Automatic annotation (TrEMBL):
This is Alanine-rich protein SCI7.12c. Gene3D superfamilies: Glycosidases (3.20.20.80). The lineage of its organism: Bacteria, Pseudomonadati, Pseudomonadota, Alphaproteobacteria, Rhodobacterales. It comes from Pseudoroseicyclus aestuarii.
Length: 377
């Protein structure tokens, strides 16, 4: 049983590796090696109490020669030069007998890259770009993901690479200052979350799926929704929406770019295991869970909001769904996702029989004292 703590490079810098090990009970570290923007309140960090990460950057020493000629290339975060290569430091500690190291790799959620390369982002049925989301059908975006995985695997050889967001991110994704005066219904979000970029059109066409009819139908449905004075569902259920003859083949196809990208990332990693970071509802992003698990080495299933009484049965069901693939659980120490120490310990106990390890979220985002909740667990 191997546990890990999802962590950021700036927290390792400010807390120090020795204190991190003491605080977290010697657990391994899953380091954010590529990450998006945000504003983080950090009660667990003694120096940077709130922090704005540099958008869409990576946290290892990038070899520019590897990326010469690449249409989309990683941008190394400034703190790698000023504060050191934390991935390298973790690997050195592991090689000296220390705990395991995982590389937590955010794949397609990258506003910086999307703004720089708008021709490779997802697009709504109206053709509007989602700058925060590179599209898994884009050859350049796929090469960016597999190139990152290959460089991390070849140069650092972590114990595991964990892929976050190798799928379609959808419309409601937490971009800052989102505005919605309409009152979007769930069916509207499904429709707005479908991608109709040129790369999806081309890739779907190769698979014998014509996106044009679906795009016309989706545009019409959204225009009808936008014209209403008050929100009103057009379908009795999402299943009824998904069964539309124009949409059904598209919804069946859209897992293909995601599953194949995961498989290509696995191939790029060589001998390093690759896991998909998954959660309930991921099918909306094109994740076919069983196929995705078969395409790599397993899943890290985030169950932050799942109470202890549901967690065991849920993980048992997942085990049946993915067969012999690896399975880890992701649990949060953050409020209100967890109610307190007894709640967290109950969730850990419920998860243990079904998983090979647990990832805990997140080192700097919770008070140092909260890690005591895991003592002996």
């Amino acid at each position: 049983m191997s546990d890990a703590v999802w962590s950021y490079a700036w927290d390792l810098q400010d807390i120090g590796l020795e204190e991190v090990a003491r605080r977290t009970g010697g657990r391994g570290v899953s380091l954010a090696t590529s990450y998006h923007a945000g504003r983080f309140l950090q009660p667990g960090n003694p120096r940077r109490r709130s922090y704005f990460p540099q958008d869409g950057t990576v946290y290892w020493q990038v070899d520019p020669a590897r990326w010469r000629g690449a249409e989309i290339a990683p941008v190394e975060a400034d703190i790698v030069a000023t504060e050191g290569d934390k991935l390298g430091a973790l690997i050195a500690r592991r090689d000296a007998g220390g705990p395991e190291v995982a590389a937590w790799c955010v794949c397609l959620h990258n506003t910086r890259a999307g703004m720089a390369h708008p021709e490779h982002v997802t697009r709504t049925a109206f053709g509007d770009p989602n700058f925060y989301a590179l599209c898994p059908s884009s050859p350049a975006a796929r090469a960016y993901v597999t190139g990152m995985v290959a460089e991390i695997a070849e140069r650092y050889a972590p114990d595991r690479i964990e892929l976050e967001s190798p799928d379609f991110l959808g419309f409601a994704h937490g971009y800052h200052h989102e505005k919605d005066g309409l009152g979007l219904l769930e069916e509207d979000l499904v429709l707005l979350g479908l991608c109709f970029c040129e790369h999806c059109h081309a890739r779907a066409s190769e698979a014998g799926v014509d996106l044009r009819a679906a795009q016309e139908r989706v545009t019409g449905l959204l225009e009808a929704s936008f014209a209403r004075e008050m929100p009103e569902a057009q379908f009795a259920s999402l299943a009824e929406l998904a069964a539309l003859p124009e949409l059904a083949p598209v919804l069946a196809w859209r897992s293909e770019p995601v599953t194949s990208l995961i498989a290509e990332a696995k191939a790029a990693a060589g001998e390093v295991p690759v896991y998909l970071i998954d959660a309930e509802g991921s099918a909306a992003g094109g994740v076919d869970r069983a196929a995705a698990a078969a395409a790599c080495d397993g899943l890290v299933f985030c169950a932050y909001d799942t109470p202890a009484e549901r967690l065991g049965p849920l993980l048992a069901q997942l085990r049946q769904e993915i067969g012999t693939a690896g399975l880890r659980a992701g649990l949060s120490l953050g409020l209100p996702q967890v109610a307190g120490p007894a709640d967290l310990r109950a969730r850990v106990a419920a998860a243990r029989p079904h998983v090979e390890g647990i990832n805990f979220y997140n080192l700097g985002l919770v008070p140092a004292a909260r890690w005591d909740w895991l003592a002996g667990h």
